[in-house]
C-alpha cells in the first residue's frame, strides 16, 4: 500500500479491518475499512440525522479508507468484483471482530485523480462534495484544500431510516450513550462554574477553574468515564473548541488541563456547589425537551451501615439526550 497507493499507507483509525484479495495464492488487491469521518456534510444531509444523534451513531458507519489494485493486475471488472465480495462479508466480520453491526459504508474520491467509476459500478451513491477542510492535530485546516466526492453504500435496505430515527433501535446501540456538544454548549458551560470557589492554592495555578470544570462536564456528557478518558477527550479538542471552553492561552495557542489537574480539581471541589451549577445548566438546556425518561438502578456493592443498597434515579431528556439530574437514595425499610 505504501509503495503503490498515491496517498501511501494509512495507520489504524479507530476500529479497522484490512482485506487482501487473492487468486491462486497471488495478491490482487488491498482494502481497508476504518472508523467513519466525524463530520461530512454531504453524508450527514443524505442520512438526515441531527448532530445530537450523529456522535452516538457514527459507529454504524465505516469508511473505505484505502483501495488498491496492484499494478500488474488491472483487469476489467476486477475492482468492482473485489469491492462487492468485501461488502458481502464486511458486516459479519465487523460484528465478529468488534461486537456491533454496520449499516452504511462511505468513501472519499479525489476528482483530481479519479472519477469514482469503480464505486458507481458497484452501486454506490455520490451524495456531494466536501468543502476541502481536513482534520489536523490543531483541529481543522484553516484553508480549504481540494474538494472530494463523497460516495455512500447502504448495507441494509433501511439504513437511512434507522440511522436518522428519533430513537435508535437497541440492537444498534454500542457502549455508553454519547451526545455531541454544540458551540453554544461549550461557550455556556464555563459561565455556570464562575462562582465556584477554587480549592487550589494560588501559586502555580495555570488553568482557570471554570475551564477545568467545563471540560470535565463536556467530556462526561460525550460519554467519557474516568480521568484518563476525560483527559484524552480534552487533548483532542481543536483550538476553536478550547477557546470556547476558555482554556489557558499561552505562546499563541490554547492549552487544556492535564489528567493530574482534572483529577485534583474534581476530587477537591465542593460537590454540592458543583451539583447546583450543573443543575442550573441543565435547567437552561431542558427547555428544548418535550419529554423526559426516568429510570432507576440499584448499586450492587453500595451498602449503607444498615445493610441497605443505594439506589440511583436519573432523568434524561428525549430530544437533547441530556441527563438533567441524578439522585442517590436508599430504599425505605
What does this molecule look like?
Helices cover 33% and strands 24% of the residues. With 333 residues, it is of the alpha+beta class. It has a 6-stranded mixed beta sheet with strand order 1-2-3-4-8-5. A 3-stranded antiparallel beta sheet has the order 11-12-13. α7 (209-221) packs across α8 and α7 (209-221) crosses α10. The N and C termini lie far apart (67 Å).
What is the radius of gyration? 24 Å
CA-based shape: globular
- Helix fraction, binned, reads 25-40%
Strand content: 15-25%
Got a strand count? 13
Q: Indicate the mean pLDDT.
A: 84
Order of helices and strands: EEHHEHEHEEEEHHHHHEEHHEEE
Instruction: Describe the strand arrangement of the main beta sheet, using strand numbers.
Output: 1-2-3-4-8-5
Low-confidence stretches: none
Q: Structural class of the secondary elements? A: alpha+beta
- Major beta sheet summary: 6 strands, mixed
Query: Count of helical segments?
Result: 11
- The separation of the N and C termini measures 67 Å
What is the topology?
Elements: E1 17-23, E2 26-35, H1 41-47, H2 51-57, E3 61-69, H3 78-98, E4 104-109, H4 117-121, E5 125-129, E6 135-136, E7 139-140, E8 149-154, H5 159-164, H6 183-192, H7 209-221, H8 227-235, H9 239-244, E9 248-250, E10 253-255, H10 259-268, H11 271-285, E11 292-303, E12 309-317, E13 323-329
